[in-house]
Structure formats: structure tokens, C-alpha cells
Amino acid sequence: MTSTAPILTDEPPPLHAPPPRRRPLVWTVVRSQPQATVGALVLLAFVVVAVLAPVIAPYDPREKVGAVFEPPSSEHWLGLDDGGFDMLSLMIHGARVSLIVGFAAALVAMLVGGTVGLLAGYFGGKTDTVLMRLTDYFIVIPDIPLMLVVAAVWGRSLTNIILIIGLIYWTTTARVIRSQVLSVRERVYVQRTRALGAGHRRILFRHVLPQVAPLLVAITVLSVAVAIFAETAIAFLGLGDPTLISWGKLIENAFSRSAISVDAWWAIVPPGLAVVAVVLACTMLGRSLEDTLNPRLRVGHLSVNRFRMRRAEGEQ
Amino acid sequence: MGVLAREPRRFVHAVEGVSFVLRRGEMLALVGESGCGKTTTAHTILRLVEADAGSIRFDGTDISALGSGDLRPLRRRMQMIYQDPYESLDPRFRVRRTLEEPLEVHGIGSRSERRQEAEQALRLTGLDPPELFLDRYPHELSGGQRQRVAIAASLVLHPDLLVADEPVSMLDVSVRAGILEILDDLRRHGLGILMITHDLSTAARFADRIAVMYLGRIVEEGPSREVVDNPQHPYTKALLSVVPKRDPRQRSRPEILRGETPNPVEVPPGCRFHPRCPIAIPECREIDPELREPSDARPGHRAACIRT
Amino acid sequence: MSLLEVQELNVWFDLASGGELHAVQGVSFELDAGERFGLVGESGCGKTTAILALMGLLPPNASVAGQVLLEGEDVLARGERTVAPHRWRDVAMVFQGAMNAFNPVKRIGEQIVEPMELHGVAQGREARRQAGELLERVGIPAERAARYPHEFSGGMRQRAAIAMALACQPKILLADEPTTALDVMVQAQILELLVALAHDFGLALVLVTHDLPVVAQVCDRAAVMYAGEIVEAGPTDALFHEPRHPYTRLLFAATPDLYGEEPVASIPGTPPRLDRPIVGCPFRPRCDRAFAPCGDVHPPLKAVAPARVAACHLNDVPEAVAS
Questions:
Q1: Distance CA B293, CA C32 (A)
Q2: Confidence (pLDDT) at A9
Q3: CA distance B107 to chain C (A)
Q4: Chains touching chain A at 3 or more Cβ pairs under 8 angstroms?
Q5: ipTM rounded to 2 decimals
Q6: Which of A15, A187, A196 has the highest number of chain B CBs within 10 A, making it the mutation to test binding with B?
């Protein structure tokens, strides 16, 4: 129904003032969606920890510093793991791999999914049909078994894990971008540019892509969460790169060395919580960005019942 | 000229056998209800929709069969203005960029020449001084100003033909005349303008000639005043009778046709208008009338009705 | 006592930026049963907000002051609590774009029955029978009640929207741009229908539109709104033939007429912003007759002739000076 936002009259800003800057997008998001700020801060904290890992980790994560499954103490805040390594240091170093895999795989998904979505949506017709059937195909493949097979066949390197995750999770990006491009393509200014004689490349890169780019960013942030989760799962199943420390690997180690039966919760819970925190942060940030940027999700509502009465000025 | 537009599963003749001539320095108004094919006609002329038969001659050249490479230089000379000024400008482009883009596309001029061209176009559309507008985004402009920018963006290429699709219907009443005056001015400077509109009053006041379309056909065509004052086709008569008058004392008896424009998928046989026609006779079901000059009309005024 | 009396209606919107937008500024008018009243103005003049306020249909960031007396009872006295019982029962509305506001997955008939059952006007079979009758009355065969909105043309959906507004036999029908997106022929059909309904049911009709000729042809009286306030009101005939506010005159002059001879002229400039105080007459910057007092003194809306009001300083000076 009618939008609830009051229409400011059409008067442009005063002619002699410089044209006002558009309010930065970030600010709009922070203001309207405080959870985006929380998500971004948490994510930033993890990134800082990952980058500074060698500096802030109290011990060398590959150096045995005490007894197996030693409980948390003032020296080892998170205790020691099954090999007598410092859990906190392992966690800090593990953040590196988890985040690298998360961001890199999301980037792969963004590139593949973005390209597919853009081309399918813009050209439509046969291109669309072929690309979307391909997408459907990837959607119906069960993720985890495929990852297991591919990891087994390709080998268990970091690059391979990134590629596997990216190539499995690009489908969401492709579909969301495609539907957005479908509507942008029909916008009059795109048609006008076409009537002008502009080629596809110009229309795609100057008019369509900039319009969907913010949404692409939002989806990518969301897929970071998915990718980190997938990496944890792969590592937990023992298919991660055995030479690298990641949160999934930590959980797997602890689990396979029966940390649970010896009540060594500190070996399992902290890496689990770290995964949850990062995934949650990405989701909060991504969802808020998406809410703000994806017009399809913005619901206009004509709320009844909520207006206020007030006395006219000068009335008692 | 004929056009095939795609509808779910079946093809319809959106426009059939439409012929008209537009001269330099002339404004022709294509009038009709939605679905009558006036926008399809315009898009076909600009080759945004492909005609499946007929020819479009632009300045002597048949453009209906040109490949996209040969068409490009001609695209420069035919420009279109859209109905919705809120939609037809890229919200991320400043006015400057919107105006310079057509020149970039066609590789015309240096940077400074393009800028001069943009400023000149803004002045022509009454956005003077141009410096005040060049750095604005569309959302910083009023509806009328946006439509002026859209017109300016089509003028930078110095076109010979301007197709204006409902150029004022989305604008506030108080600014419409200003936009129409710009078009009128351009017409006087030699542009051919094809204006698509559903508003007969606007057509009557600003166009040189009016062509009335019904179900993909032109049913009447002639000089504006002549068509309005001496309508020949019963559809034109009905259409004119329902246009509300400004003066409350002139409450004319509108001759309201029942139903709505029929679906172009089911074009009636014979005269397309006969099922709704108040003066239809049995022959109308068989004879598909052609445009011709009725005896009691001025030269150049044609109607497609056997009863005239 | 008039059927509807609106007194000093004001609506403000809180803006996200912290300011306040005074969208409707002291609007007053009266309406009798069977009367057809036009509310005319350009986009952003507050005409839609004003009638949404009558219905109590404003968003949470709106605040309202003033009185809306429906048969003497102030329906806004206690906000939603006093307005709700009258909404749709006594005052119904055809919203702008109503033809596109049907629920696509519910049959037209069900959607007309809904307000009846909600307000306890009729239930079950009786409600369905009445819905059928209403559809017939607006020119849709009753059996089409079982159809879905997408099976109707734009004009038919607009008729159905009118039937829906009439579901609870209201006394007042508010129609916001009821014909704006429609073709002229369908527009004529809908306007004819509205006039007939107002006549047959003794409905008071408020037609909100930017289209002066439509008001001229349909309404007995009209009010012209500019920048949130009524600047002139009176019989439509008088508004056209002897406008007492320059805006009314210029608006008519900007509207092309099929047979008119005089040039069509636009009004230069744009309306003032309503999120800051306006000094003097809000129309002064665009007025072709502005003179000394217009810059400082806000002209009050006052009687200028029997049954006519206008807010213009020109009405206070002798004819010779004014012209």
C-alpha cells in the first residue's frame, strides 16, 4: 500500500549551496541496523587476532608445554590439548586458517556466482536457461559427500579446500544476483542506454553491475559464514590439510583423542564457540546489509493504530 | 509496418498495417488507450522491437533491415524520451555523466567538447546556469528538472527525430506545460517529434497532427485541430467526448463505450471497432476499412470507417 | 449539522533526520450527505495525508491535531480507539492504486466479504449474497465473485475496489486518485459509477486528485490545497470562472483543455519544503501577483464571497489596486 515515508516536496536544495553529499552507506546501515555494527566489530576482532597471531599467542602452538589435557590455569587460560599444546595459542593460530578459508572461498563463490547471475539475468533466454540448469544441478548435489569425494580425489591442500567450498556455495549468489539483474535490466535507464546505441559491456559494467554490487557484497559476507562452517565440517571429518591448525582440526583432534570421555571440555568448546561467534557475526552483518540493500526484502507497511494525537499549538 | 510481440505461448499482432509520415519540424501525436500498440509502434521505429513486415524509412534510408553495425550511426539521430523521469536516469550517475554518456558511447568529441555539449543541452532545456545542475544526482532534482535532464541527454547527440513516450504524464500539472514548451521549441528548430500520449487535450494543444490508434491500427489521422473539431471515426468521437473539460459549466454528455479495449489476441473480424461501435452496421463485420479521406473532411484528414 | 466536519486538521511527520514535516496545516472543510467534494492539489500538497488522517490511517511517526466531527462526534478525540469503530463502517476509502492492492491468492468475493464479517455487517451466506449484489451494482456480474484478481482487467479491479469500500454501507466514500492509472474511457466509466453511487446511496464523495478537469466534471464543491493547506475552496464553477487565489487560476491555466484557445503555461518554481517554517504566503515565490504583504504575513483562509474561502492578500485590497 502507500509508503509511510512522508514525501518531502520536490524543491531541490538551495541553488547556491554545493550539492549535498549522499550519506555514506555504512552510516545508514549502522544507524538503522545496530546488529550490523556488532557483527562487523566481532568480525574485525577475529581478523585482528588472526593477523597478529604470532605476536599475541602466548606459546608456540607446536611446542609441548605441559601434560596432556591439562585443565585451564593462570598460565594456560584454555588448558592444554591432547598433545600438551596450549589451547589458547592453537585457537589464535587456528583463526588464521578458518578466516582465510572463509574469505577466500566466499570470494570464489562471489566471482563464480556473480558472473553466472549477471550473465543469466542480463542476457536471459537460452543463456539464462543453461546457466540456471547448471545452478540447479549444483544445488541438488549433497554438499558434504561431494566435499568428501573431491577432497579425497584432489588431495587435502588449503587451496583445494577453498576451491571446493567456493564451487559448492556459489549457487545462492548466482540466484539472488540473477533475480536482481532481471529487474535492473528492465529499468528504464538501462533501456534508454540501449536505445542510445551502447553495447552490452557498457550497460553491464556501468549500469547493471554498480546497481547490484552492494547486494553482491552482502551475499558474500553471508557466504563467509557458510564457508567457515563448511571448513570446520571438512576438518572435523578429517579431510582438512593435516599440516594446518584450524578450529575444525582442533575439534577433530580433541574428539578423536576422546577429550569428551576425560571431561576435557576446554579442548572442544572454545574452538566450537569461536566458529559460532564468527558465523554469527557474518550472518548479522550480512543480513543487515541485505535488508538494507535488497529491495525485495524491504516491506512497506501502512501501520494502523499507531499515530499520536496532539494538541494544536496554542491550545491548552 | 507490422510487429510481432511475444505473449505467453502465442504471438499477437500488436501493431498491424500502421503507416504514417513524420516530417522535419513537425510534432505528431500518437493517441490511444493502453494496449492499442502506440508504444510498440514507437519502439519499432527505434528498432528496439523488430518489425516482421513493412519498412521504416528514416531520412530516405530503409532502416528496418539494417544490421546493428549500420544502425549505430543512425541511432544517434533518433532519440527517445521516457515517461517516468524517476526511472529513466541512472540513480548513481550525476547529471554530468548522464549527459556525457551518449557522446562517449558514440565516441564524439574531447572531454571539454563533451562538457560544452552537456552544458549547451542543459541551457536548451531551461536548466540555466548549467553549473548548478551538472554535479547533482537525480534524487536531488524535482520531477520536472529530471525530465529536462532526460531531454537534454537526448539532445547532446543532435538528433533529427525525437520519440517522446508520455513525456509529461508522470509530472505535476504545474510543470507539464514547461516540458511541452521545450518540445515545441525543438520542433520549431526542425526536429521531428513523435509524441505518444493518452491525453487528447495535450495532443490537441501541442501537436501538429494527431493519429488515433485502436487495437494496433491507426483509425484516424489528420491535423490536430481538424481531428478534434471535426472527428470522423466513431472511436475518435467517443474518445473526445469522454475527455473531461476544465469548465464545470461544460458538462458534456460523455459517450461512454462499454467494456475495455479488447485483447489484441482476439482481434474481431471486419472493422476492429465494430463490437463497441455505436453506429456499426452489418457490413462492418466483414469489411476491414482502410484509411481514406472522408468527403466532408479537409485534405490530409483520413479515417478508417465505412460510415464516413 | 453537517455529516462530516473537519476542523483545523494538522498532521506532522517525525523525520528520520530529527526534524518534523508539517504535512497538513490547519485544514478545515464540511461535507453533507450526497455531496461530491473535490480535494485538488499537486504531489506532496498533503491531500492524501489529510484523508488518511480522517480514517486514522497514519504511520507511527505521524502526530495529528484537530477535530474530525462525524455527525457531531469527534472521531479523533481518543485516537485509534474512537476512530476504529467508524473506519470502513461510516467512512470507507478507495486507496490510490487500489486496483493493484488485492490479495492475489484470494477470490475477489472473499475479499469483499472480509470487511463485512469483520465489522459484523453480515456473515457467511448472507455476506456472500450482499457481496454479489455489490459487484452487480458496480457493474461486475455476481458470478465473477469466484474469480481471482488477476483475471480482472484494471478497470474491473477498480470497480471491485469500490465494491469493497461499499461493503459496510458507509456514509462517506474517500477516493484517492481513483482513475489516475486508467485510460480515459475507463476513467469515464469509473467516474460515472462514482457519481451514480453517490446519488443512489446518498453517499458523500470526497475525490482526491491532481486532475482539475476530473474535479470540474464530477464535484459540486472543491478545495485547492497547496503546501499542506487549503488555499481556496468553493463551488467548482466559481473556482474556474472567478478564482480568488492565484494558484487556482494558474493551475487551471496550466491544464490544457481540448477546445481551449489561450496558451497553456506552467507555474515556475517548486512548492516550499514543509520541514521548516514558512514565512509569509507559501505560494509567494511562484505567484505572478505577489505584493508587499505577501513576504511577511501568512494570509489567513477567510470568506471572500458566499460559500467561498480563499487565503490570499489580494482579496483584501480594492479591485483597482489588485488588478
A1: 52
A2: 37
A3: 36
A4: B, C
A5: 0.87
A6: A196
